[in-house]
Amino acid sequence: MNIVVDQEIEYIKSQQQQLNFVVLSEDKNKIIITYENQQLAFTITNDGFQTETDFFETFESMLMNVFPSFQQHFMNEIMKKLK
Prior knowledge:
Blueprint: H1 5-14, H2 16-19, E1 22-27, E2 30-35, E3 38-44, E4 49-50, E5 55-56, H3 59-66, H4 70-82
Antiparallel strand pairs: 1-2, 2-3, 3-4, 4-5
């Protein structure tokens, strides 16, 4: 996988409202977000998303694994687009 870090940062910023998270901090490729009052710090690399303990290939898979309630929200958004 080859992620363009700057493009991914812009994508993440653009998805805040739709996916119900807030970008608290951005420093080059290090991002901190909050979702349902929980913070998550991660680093974007050309290969994916690195949290303190885990690696994920996509932003959405990281959110679904770190925040279990995000799975349902994400599936609801997908279903809206399929209608």
